Amino acid sequence: MIRPDFDNIFMELAVNLAKRSHCIKKHVGAVLTKETRIISIGYNGPPAGTHNCDIEFPESGCARDSKGSCSLALHAEQNAILYAVKNNTSVEGSTLYVTLAPCLACARIIYSMGIKKVVFLYSYAEYKGIGRDEGVDFLEKFGVEVEKYEQEITVNDQLI
Fold it and tell me: Are 43 and 27 within 8 A, CB to CB?
């Protein structure tokens, strides 16, 4: 049996967490780590105790804001950071594994919270059909290490 490295374990977990999302538009998962330990997890969706978009709005999803984004959703990385902070866990110096590169708003939060590295699976720019990954550009400009995950991911014996 081949022992997987921690990058692979954490990204596979992020991929599996994305399956928990109630968003009908995009499923995203995130894992916050320090060294080889998981300190928090998250996936995108509305705040706990509000709506489950796939159940309450199965055809259209939640209402859109003025920019066309979900009006209810917290992003996966926001949920992971908020849960850690809510439970008095410092995220400073941590690494974030996320299935979709951070948007610009999330990048600002990541930088402000002192997260030192972000590893992402898919491009936010490609998903949104925009020219570049603004969040990645922001993080790199201000010294946060950013890495696109290039290894193959196998979840439930399926290559993704």
Answer: yes
pLDDT in tens, 5-41: 999 999 999 999 999 988 878 899 999 999 999 999 9
b (16+ CB within 10 A) / e for 119-146: bbbeebbeeeeeeebbbbebbeeeebeb
Q: In what order do the strands lie in the sheet with 117-122?
A: 37-43, 29-34, 95-100, 117-122, 145-148
* Structure-derived torsion over alpha carbons of residues 15, 107, 76, 68, reported in degrees to the nearest 10: -110
Q: Are strands 158-159 and 29-34 parallel, antiparallel or unpaired?
A: unpaired
Whole-structure pTM over 0.85, yes or no? Answer: yes
The tens digit of pLDDT for each residue in 66-116 reads 766 777 789 999 999 999 999 999 999 999 999 999 999 999 999 999 999
Name the one residue in this structure whose structure tokens are 């439930």.
Answer: 156
Residues forming the active site: 77
Rounded Cα–Cα distance for residues 131 and 153 (Å): 26
For residue 76, report the phi and psi dihedrals to the nearest 5 degrees.
-55, -45
Rounded Cα–Cα distance for residues 42 and 98 (Å): 9
In angstroms, the CA 8 to CA 13 distance is 8
